[in-house]
Amino acid sequence: MSEQRYNAYRVMWILVLFDLPTETKAERKAASTFRKRLIADGFVMFQFSIYMRHCPSRENSKVHVKRVKSSLPKYGKVCVFEITDKQFEMMEIFHGRKEIPKPQPVQQLELFYFLFSIKCKNHL
Amino acid sequence: MLKRTIYIGNPSYLRLKQHQLVVACTNTKEPKGTVPIEDMALLVLDHPQITLSTQLINRLMGNTVAIVHCDNHHLPSGLMLPMAGHSQLTERWRHQLAASIPLKKQLWKQTITAKITNQKELLAKYQQPTEAMNVYLQKLVSGDETNMEGKAANHYWKYILTDFQRERFGEAPNNFLNFGYAVLRSIVARALVSSGLLPAMGIFHKNKYNPYCLADDIMEPYRPFVDLLVLEYITLHPTEEELTQQAKAHLLTIATQDVLIDAKKRPLLVAVTTTTASLYKCFTGERRTILYPLMV
After folding, report:
1. Binding of Mn(2+): at which residues (chain B) (predicted)?
2. What's the pLDDT tens digit per position in A6-62?
3. Shortest CA gap A37–chain B (Å)
4. I want to staple A50 with a disulfide (CB 3.0 to 4.6 A). Which of A46, A123, B66, B152 is the partner?
């Protein structure tokens, strides 16, 4: 029930796709600054030159879109768009011809038990 | 905005990289995940082998993220909050400290009304007698001088759980309740700090050893939501006595529980900030009532 409620908050994903020139030193610098700002704003790499970010609400996604716009480089092509969590969920990803699992949806509660989870159980 | 709760339950190395919290393996330092700090509300640390960098703590404090430390029994033992969670800190403290005694008594009466109402709702949900609760609500006076809170609690615990003694260090499900309340207390304390209020100066609680008197006041009407989660859990797992990871994961969903506040359905984490914001307005005289949640 709560998970639905979390979705009712209209969870959004922002995707940023870019092609930036890297001919001169200044251009490379501008491109890497743009990329670093995306990372600092919480974007994660999806593919080379494609970054995405999870936003818990539409209002929040507007904030991050605005931030991306404010850090645009002088030259190059950048595309910013938002999709809903539902659309994100329907995505299909392939490595070669084999389908691979898509990125895990972000939960409000995140539990980190990646290592030694068996040891932890014994400890309890 | 509904912010995230991050729970760390095994050895890990936490550091800051480009404004992100990076969770890494202790030995290899290999990153296992990143979380944007501005999206976080609570960071629960529940393992002795967790290392944090000072830079990270600093950034967490800058974004009013509450860091909750757990002890050997996996119960929250410490809470770290920023000194200044709000820009108008001193002005807000002044309003809070200048609150008159009649105002505080009125606010406490409203708090207990909300608490007993929610307890009554929960009893009704489990088909238990609620008539007595109505009587306690009617007899409630300013400042709860007649201690209707205690009487209602007596009735409530008698019917909501069979063969149960509510104790601080008692048998299960006391441990579940304690964990849930401790997390709730952290959520409330964080909301108070972000509304620029001083969590140490309560409206009713005034124990000189308690640094979170106001959080203890404000969380009262929210307690039945924890009780509901615990009841749900023990119905599903009747034999479980230990506070397992699974139990904790269930109890940590308290932040996303639906509540009805100001005639709107909101997750609890958002509702708590509504409550603390309305409390501040009560201190300044802009409002006469605190907004409290109702069971849905």
Report:
1. 149, 205, 220
2. 666 678 899 999 999 999 999 999 999 999 999 999 999 999 999 999 888 888 899
3. 8
4. A46
pTM: 0.81
Find which of A6, A111, A115, A120 to mutate to test the B interface (most B CBs within 10 Å of its CB).
A111
Pick left, alpha or beta for residue B36 (phi over 0 → left; psi -120 to 50 → alpha; otherwise beta): beta
How high is the ipTM of this complex? 0.76
Element (H, E) at B175: helix B174-194
Both tokens assigned to B79 = 């809470």
Joined tokens for residue A93: 């990803």
Contact B112, B148 (CB under 8 A): yes
B149 is in an annotated binding site: yes
Contact A5 B267 (CB under 8 A): yes
∠ CA B46-B47-B53, rounded to 5°:
95
Distance from CA of B141 to the nearest CA of A (A): 36
CA B190 – CA B80 distance, rounded (Å) = 9
In the structure encoding, which two tokens stand for residue A22, read together? 């890297």
Compute the distance between CA of residue B124 and CA of residue A60 in angstroms, rounded to an integer.
38
- pLDDT tens sequence across B52-74: 999 999 999 999 898 988 888 77
